[in-house]
Amino acid sequence: MRARVYVTPKAGVLDPAGKAIEHSLHSLGFGDVQGVRLGKYIELELEASQGDPRHRLDEMCRRLLANSVIEDYRFEVEE
Amino acid sequence: MRWGVVTFPGSLDDSDAVAAIEGVLGDPVTRLWHKEQSLHGVDCVVLPGGFSYGDYLRPGAMARFSPIMERVIEFASAGGLVLGICNGFQILCEAGLLPGALVSNCSMSFICDIVTVRVEENDTAFTRAYTNGEVLKMPIKHGAGCFVAAPAMLEELEDRRQVIFRYVDSAGRATADANPNGSLNNIAGICNQRRNVVGLMPHPEHACEKLVGSDSGLGLFRSIKTAVTDAAGRQRESVPSGL
Prior knowledge:
The complex is a heterodimer.
Chain A: E1 2-9, H1 16-27, E2 40-45, H2 54-65, E3 71-78
Antiparallel strand pairs in A: 1-2, 1-3
Chain B: E1 3-7, H1 14-25, E2 29-33, E3 44-47, H2 67-77, E4 81-85, H3 87-94, E5 101-103, E6 111-119, E7 135-142, E8 146-148, H4 151-159, E9 163-168, E10 187-191, E11 197-200, H5 218-234
Parallel strand pairs in B: 1-2, 1-3, 3-4, 4-11
Antiparallel strand pairs in B: 5-8, 6-7, 6-9, 9-10, 10-11
C-alpha cells in the first residue's frame, strides 16, 4: 500500500523559502498571491501484510520525517 | 585531555577540527566514526561541519540517528561537554540536545563569508577564555543557518542566558546588517540549560591561526581545555557538568 505524507512549516515559524517564492511570484506578475508556505511531500510504499499502518506512520513522522519544532505533518493511506 | 571528533558520512570539517585541536592546541584527538558504539573515554565531543547525509530531508535529520549519537546523548545527559559546529549545531537541535532549529538562510542563498560575533556569556566551559562582549571574527559557510524557535522558547533562551554568541557588526552592535542569515535575535550560537552543550553556526576551527585571517576561534577550544583540566584536577572521576 502507499502512504502520502505532507510536511508543512508550522504557522508562525519563519519560512524563508516560502517568502522567496512569494516574491518571485509577485515579480512574475502574480500580485494576488498573499502568502506562500513551502512544505515537503513524501511517498512511501508499505508492506500490505502489516495491517493498519497509521500508528507506525505517525511514529515515522514524529521521529524522522517531520521536525516537530518547526513542522506539522499529515498523511493519507491508499490501499 | 582527549577530544573526540565525530565523522558522519558527508562531514567535511572534521579534519579541520582535528587540525585545530592537534596542530594548534596540541591536544590528542580520537576520531569517532558515526557507527561506533563508544566514545572511547574522550573528555569533549565535537560534531563537525559539513553535509552529513547530504543534508537530505533536513540538515542533521538523519545524522542524529547514527549509532554514535546514542553515546553522545548519554554523554551529554551525564554532563559531558559537547560542541556542535555548523552541521554539528544542526544535528544537536535535531537530536533535541539543543532547543530550536536551523532553517534556510533568509536570503535563500548559501553564504560563505567572515562574520563578527559577540561573546554573550563567558561563564560557560566553552567561553571562559573570552571576556563578555568580546568580538570575534570567524568564517561562516552555510545554506541553513537561520536559527528559529517559538517565541516562548526564544524568550526563555534570552532569560536563561543561553545565547552564547550573537552576530554583531565590527562595533559590537547586533544589527540586521550584521545578521548574515536572518537568525532570530541575531543568534549565532546557544547552549542548553545545563550549559554543557553548545552549538554555533560560525566555524571556530577555521579561525585558530592568524595566518588564515583570524585566531579568535582558538579561545573556544582553550576554554574547553582549561574547563576539563581544572575539573580533572579537582575531581578525577566524573565528567564536569557545565562549568
